[in-house]
Amino acid sequence: MEPIIIVLIILVVLVFIALIKTIQVIPQASAAIVERFGRYTRTLNAGLNIVVPFIDTIRNRIDLREQVVPFPPQPVITQDNLVVNIDTVIYYQVTDARAATYEVASYIQAIEQLTVTTLRNIIGGMDLERTLTSREEINAALRGVLDEATGKWGIRVNRVELKAIEPPTSIQDSMEKQMRADRDKRAAILQAEGVRQSEILRAEGEKQSAILRAEGEAKAAALRAEGEAQAIRTVFESIHAGDPDQKLLSYQYLQMLPKIAEGDANKLWIVPSEIGDALKGLSGAFGNFGPMAGGPAPANGKELREQPRID
After folding, report:
1. Which positions make up the signal peptide (predicted)?
2. What is the DSSP code (8-state) at residue 203?
C-alpha cells in the first residue's frame, strides 16, 4: 500500500504543478513572451492565459507602462574645448514586447549609450554659452534621434530632459563674477536713472510752483488794481454826489501840503498853481487871510514859486 500512496501523491503534485504552469495570469499594463522549445510563439496580454505545461515557457515579462531612467553625468566637450558634465533623464515606453526582447539584448543600456553619443554630437557643435541657454533645442534634437533609433526595438522615447549642465569650476567662478558685475552695473544704472528722474520731477515741481506763484501774484495785482479803481470810482462818485464847494476843496489842498513834503530825500517840493485859488477861497471864507509866516501872501492869486525845503 505504501508504494501506491507514494505514487498517488506524486501524481497529485504533478497535476498541481501542471495546472500552475497551464494557467498564467498577466497583470494589467504588462506582457509576457512565450517560447516553445526555445522559439517565440506568442505574446501574452493582460488577463488569464492558458499555455501548454512543460512545453511552453515564459521567456520575459515586460512592463508596458512609461518608465523613467536617469543616466549618470557624462563628460561632453563643447565647441570651444570646454568639458561639461550633463545629467539626462529619459522617459520611454515599451510598445512592442517581442521587439524589445529579441531585437536588442538590453534596451536600457542601448538607450544610455545612444544618449551619450548623441549628446556629444549635439554639444560638440555648440559653444558653452549656447549650451547653457539652449536646453529645449538640445532636448528636441536628442529626442528625435533616440525616437528614430529605438523604434525598431519596440521602444518609444516620450521625453528627454537635461537635469543639469555643469561647466568646470573655474568657468563657474568666472560666470559668477560676470553676473555679479552685470548686477552691479544694472544697479548703478537704475540708481542714476532714479536720481535723474528725481531731479526732473523736482525741476518740474519748481517750475509749476513758480508758474502758479506768478499767476497768483498777477491775479492778486489785478484784483488790487481793480479794488483801487473801484475805490477811486466810489470816491469820485461820492464827491460828485456831495457837490463840494470851493471852500472844501481849498481846505483839502492845505491838508495835502505836509504829505507832499514828507520823506528825507525830498530837498524841494513844488506848489501847484491851483494853490493860489485855494488860498483865495479860504481868504473869502475866513474874511482876511493875512500874511503867511515867512513872507507876504501871494497877491492876485499868482502862482507860488518853488521853495527849497528846510530840513
Report:
1. none
2. H
